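Sorry to interrupt, but I need a hand with the structure work. Could you write out one complete protein record for me, on any chain you like? Could you add the entry underneath, on a fresh line?
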Amino acid sequence: MELIIYLLIGAIAGFTAGLFGVGGGLIIVPILYVVFTQLHYDPAVIMHIAVGTSLATIIVTSFSSVTAHHKKGAVLWPVFRNLAPGLVLGSFLGAGIADLMSGQHLQLLIGIFAVVMAYRMFKGAHVVVDPTRQLPSTPMQF
């Protein structure tokens, strides 16, 4: 039965990751939290295990999604190269901070972040768009 549950979670997360570019953390972590709770995992570490497991699954969804987007020319690799050092540093820093937090505090932080991001997406961007300006055909580097 567990295998079926995990296959369904993976399918849902993979679908949302491929379609929207989100899914890993926003879908898998809360679902794994519920599943791990039902499986009677230690409440003190459920969130840490859910986040860690989610991060491992993101490797698969990211690779398959970026491959598909790359084939369509929808990945700006120079931008990625500029983001990569900060991503690596931020990942280590974030993991270190998460390790110091209790499961309850980590759960609260993730919940607040998800609600704030959902609100901001629902509210929409309030920027004036210049219709004469278009994205450059090739990425500009500074």
Notes: The chain has a mean pLDDT of 86.
